[in-house]
Structure formats: structure tokens, C-alpha cells
């Protein structure tokens, strides 16, 4: 391959996150609604019939499908499907920072306002129940943060003879922070709490 061929390939390349084509891509919506005492954040409790994370607290959302126009469209579609509302009642949608998890997932979070929230009829196949928390609670209460260590474990046929130090190689310690909010008997944690914390940082 000559230099001109190399340069042509480089000029036509659009940078992206390396390996992102193998990542699962999801979009979620942090729903806001207005009650008598002010703005609330709406949460779902996942149906106990679901295979993945049954009974956990989350925001509406799911995997981005081929028919979705973009990440925002996916977040709105999932919200409409899970809350049983009309698409026109999801307004003022704004993106938050997207997140890359250490488990091969890219998450695109958005914030949106739910009009006519009295019409919400959760889809029982996906949503066990819903509840709301006053936005002021999160503004005045910091999340609890706990560190989780991620230990590297090379597979059995890993070629230790090809790296300095071999089996004694000093792997860089890695970890992740898990966020928690406690509200009554509810524990809001994980990516849901992390998205919520990021949102609160922005509006403060």
C-alpha cells in the first residue's frame, strides 16, 4: 500500500469511540411533571416478570432500535410505550451527557416534561408501578457514593510470556462509583441515580 492510499483512507475516516460498534446502545428519559407542591421526578419499578433487573427502580428507556430516528426518538418511544401516554405529551426534551459503562454499553439520557400526567397508564408487561419524588428532595440531598473495585482476571490461555512481568504484571486498579438516593422505603441507585445526580448538577 502506497502513501497516497494511506492518506485517502485517513481523510475519509470519521472518528468515533473505538469499538463502539460492538457496544449495546440504550436511551432513557428522566421524566419531570408538575404536582400541587411543585416539580416531581417520575420513576418506574420494573415488572417482576422481566428477565433483566426485575423490581429495580429506573427511568423509562431501552435499547435503541433500527427504526428510531435518533437517540432522542428512542427515549421518547420507550417512554410512550412504558407509560401508556400520547407522544404529544412528552415535551421540552433535552440531552444530558451520554455515559459509557464498563460493561459494553453506551447510555444516552434525556430530560423531558410530561404533560397531562393524569393520563399515565403504565404497561404492566414492563412496569410494576410508578412513583414520584419532589425535585426539591434531590436538590437538598446529596447522593451516597460507594466505590466498587473491578478486578482484572485474564482468561486461562492469556499469553503472560509476552508481557513484562508475566503473571506478576501489575495491572492498573480500576473501579466504578455506585450512587444511591434513599427516599422513604425506596432505594434509587446505579445508573438511574448517576443520571439523576448529573441532572441535579446541571440545574444547580
Structural account:
The N and C termini lie far apart (55 Å). A hairpin with a 2-residue loop joins strand 10 and strand 11. The relative contact order is 0.18. The mean pLDDT is 93. The protein has 204 residues and is an alpha+beta fold. The protein has four helices and eleven strands; from the N terminus they run αββββαββββαβββα. Helices cover 21% and strands 36% of the residues. The longest helix has 14 residues. Strands 1, 2, 3, 4, 5, 6, 7 and 8 form an eight-stranded mixed beta sheet that branches. The chain has a single domain, classed as Nucleoside Triphosphate Pyrophosphohydrolase (Alpha-Beta Complex), CATH 3.90.79.
Largest sheet: 8 strands, mixed
Number of strands: 11
Element string (H = helix, E = strand)? HEEEEHEEEEHEEEH
Distance between the termini: 55 Å
Weakly predicted, low-confidence segments = none
Shape: globular
The CATH class name reads Alpha Beta
Produce the secondary structure layout.
Blueprint: H1 3-11, E1 24-35, E2 38-46, E3 57-58, E4 61-63, H2 71-83, E5 90-95, E6 99-101, E7 105-114, E8 127-134, H3 135-140, E9 144-150, E10 174-183, E11 186-189, H4 190-203
Parallel strand pairs: 1-7
Antiparallel strand pairs: 1-2, 1-4, 2-3, 2-8, 5-7, 6-7, 9-10, 10-11
Which tags fit this structure?
single chain; 204 residues; alpha+beta; Nucleoside Triphosphate Pyrophosphohydrolase; eight-stranded mixed beta sheet; three-stranded antiparallel beta sheet; 4 helices; globular; magnesium; NUDIX_hydrolase-like_dom_sf
Report a brief summary of the structure:
With 204 residues, this protein is of the alpha+beta class. It is 21% helix and 36% strand. Residues 23-156 form the Nudix hydrolase domain.
Amino acid at each position: 500500500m502506497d502513501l497516497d492510499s494511506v492518506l485517502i483512507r485517513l481523510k475519509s475516516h470519521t472518528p468515533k469511540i473505538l469499538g463502539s460498534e460492538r457496544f449495546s446502545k440504550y436511551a432513557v428519559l428522566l421524566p419531570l411533571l408538575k404536582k400541587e407542591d411543585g416539580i416531581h421526578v417520575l420513576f418506574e419499578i420494573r415488572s417482576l416478570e422481566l428477565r433483566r433487573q426485575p423490581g429495580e427502580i429506573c427511568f423509562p428507556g431501552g435499547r435503541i432500535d433500527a427504526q428510531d430516528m435518533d437517540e432522542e426518538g428512542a427515549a421518547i418511544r420507550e417512554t410512550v410505550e412504558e407509560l401508556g401516554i400520547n407522544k404529544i405529551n412528552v415535551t421540552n426534551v433535552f440531552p444530558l451527557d451520554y455515559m459509557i459503562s464498563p460493561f459494553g454499553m453506551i447510555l444516552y439520557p434525556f430530560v423531558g416534561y410530561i404533560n397531562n400526567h393524569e393520563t399515565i397508564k403504565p404497561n404492566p408487561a414492563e412496569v410494576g408501578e410508578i412513583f414520584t419524588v419532589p425535585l426539591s428532595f434531590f436538590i437538598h440531598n446529596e447522593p451516597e457514593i460507594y466505590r466498587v473495585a473491578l478486578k482484572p482476571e485474564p482468561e486461562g490461555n492469556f499469553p503472560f510470556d509476552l508481557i513484562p512481568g508475566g503473571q506478576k504484571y501489575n495491572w492498573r486498579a480500576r473501579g466504578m462509583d455506585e450512587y444511591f438516593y434513599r427516599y422513604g422505603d425506596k432505594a434509587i441507585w446505579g445508573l438511574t441515580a448517576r443520571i439523576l445526580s448529573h441532572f441535579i448538577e446541571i440545574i444547580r
